Amino acid sequence: MKKRITLAKQKSIAGFAFISPFLIGIILVFIPSLIKAFSFSINELKISPSGYSLQFAGLEFYKEALFEHATYSKQLIESVVDMLINIPLVIIFSFFISNILNMNFKGRAAVRSILFLPVIVSSGVIITLNSVAIVNGVMTSGSGGESISTVDLSNLLVTLGLPTGIISYLSQAVSHLYEVINSSGVQILIFLAALQTISPSIYEAATMDGATAWEKFWKVTFPMLSPYILTNTVYTLIDLITSDRSTVLSTIVSTAQTNINYSLSTAMAFLFFGVVVIILVAFVLVISRIVFYYD
Q: Would the pLDDT of 145 be above 60?
């Protein structure tokens, strides 16, 4: 008698079939390319009319990138600081904006379109027009020639008696406001879609038990959305490191294409990749502790 396949087994097979093209690409394309690139970073690559040759150099190019290059180390540190500031800001901003957009109010569709608009127009000429100088000029200019700066905000927070660390973080948050809004479109959409999957009966049961709106948010909404916080964190990190505004990527590309130093460029890329992996693992370990999976 033919053995029937269980539903769980069918789902497993379907899932494996779905990710099989990705696995094939990883095994046949990505891993060999990664190994080849690593060999470039530990060898001096010399190009000749007949091809290229490799001469073993060990970690010399890694040392040059970290300790001898004029700007790479500084740009790497600045990129790490920007990621540590921007990622929490993007997640928090998109989380609360999606909750607001999930409410019923007039003009909700228009507001959703406006907040998602940066994702559509954030390329080509639009990015050039939205340069940092223009944006900073708009954000710091007020009516009557007055201006609001992060210095003014810092002075206000000092008078409130807040700790120095919080004041510094909030000041940095204000200076990164444009980047946060411009980078939150997809995350808002993911959170918004997740909110639509929460059954209204759960909120009805919580209301019958006497839960307030605040309690329903922290006891129902937040736990149900916690898996998507992890998803959006990974997406935000990848989005930031591949952004056209990344000075580290610009240095890596210019080192290879302008200075024709492929070995140094590859070493820079692997150092950046290593730092990103460390940050990603740290975020995953922290966020995994609060993730709640509803079965």
A: no
Q: How many other C-beta atoms lie within 10 A of the C-beta of residue 34?
A: 13
Phi-psi region of 241 (alpha: psi -120 to 50; beta: other; left: phi over 0): alpha
**pTM beyond 0.85:** no
With beta carbons less than 8 A apart as the criterion, state whether 263 and 60 touch.
Answer: no
Q: Show me where the domains of the chain are located.
A: 62-288
What Cα–Cα distance (Å) separates residue 51 from each residue in 45, 92, 242, 265?
10, 51, 30, 19
The three-point CA angle 90-279-153 to 5° equals 40
Phi and psi at 44, nearest 5°, equal -80, 120
Query: Pick from 139, 87, 181: which is nearest to 152 by CA?
Result: 139
Chain-centroid distance of CA 82 in Å reads: 11
Is the CATH number 3.40.1180.10 carried by domain 62-288?
no
Residues whose CB falls within 8 Å of the CB of residue 21, separated by 6 or more in sequence, listed in order: none
Give per-residue pLDDT as tens, 24-79: 999 999 999 999 989 989 998 887 777 788 888 889 999 999 998 888 999 999 88
Closest CA to 40 of 26, 55, 29: 55
Tracing tokens 């995350």 back to the chain, one arrives at: 187
